[in-house]
Amino acid sequence: MLFLKTVTVRAADKIILHAISHIFEKGKIYAIMGPNGSGKSTLVQTIIGNSIYTLDSKSSMTFNKKKLNGQSPDKRAKMGIGITFQSPLAMQGISVFQLLRLALKDMDVLELYEKIEKIAKELKIKKELIDRPLNEGASGGERKKLEVLQMALLNPSIIFFDEIDTGVDIDSLKTIFTFLKKYKKNKTFVFITHYSKIFAYLKPDEVLVMKEGRLVKKGGKELIEEIERKGYEAF
């Protein structure tokens, strides 16, 4: 369980998130929605420990009853917090297999490669993308699939999907969500987006609406329909 209590965040001495409180429960699916610049990605970057954001001294973040305040991004990842990025970068000189080998040192090499091949097949990832430097020559959809593959093997208990549909064609999006439905089990999924189309594939248990750095409304999936009808100006 991830517990945010009055999370106020500064960047360059300017407050950009205002007293956000919420509990993300185990096994649930969440949507964080809002227009561009509403603070969605900033909130996630704060949770994973991006050092450009400063957490107010009165703010508190705990994950499975352990304090996140002051913990490094690496430590938070080891605690079970994962993220797929909006624009995954290419990495020269290291393949997805080599990257996962570094992260999963206790796993047998052959077992790891077999698991990568199995998940890659389910996600319809070309074999050459597994062997070449990470994301080199990969399309937007292929990069997102490779991120999902990494999350499936790293196995965090909560995953933030930051704009997972950006640069992804409809067929790739269907493939990704078909896999996520199967993979989810007891994990917590948090989708950050300003479009509602992805929720045709996976329905959220709770929707959070952000605007101008504030959490302005919470509710069920009916909020998505309200956003589609009225836009974010209604909040």
TrEMBL record:
The keyword Transferase does not apply. Pfam families: ABC_tran (PF00005). One of its GO terms (molecular function) is ATP hydrolysis activity. It comes from the Bacteria. InterPro entries: AAA+_ATPase, ABC_transporter-like_ATP-bd, FeS-cluster_ATPase_SufC, P-loop_NTPase. Residues 2-234 form the ABC transporter domain. Keywords: ATP-binding, Nucleotide-binding. The keyword Nucleotide-binding applies. NCBIfam families: sufC. Belongs to the ABC transporter superfamily. Ycf16 family. This is Fe-S cluster assembly ATPase SufC. It comes from Candidatus Roizmanbacteria bacterium CG_4_10_14_3_um_filter_39_13. The lineage of its organism: Bacteria, Candidatus Roizmaniibacteriota. The gene is sufC.
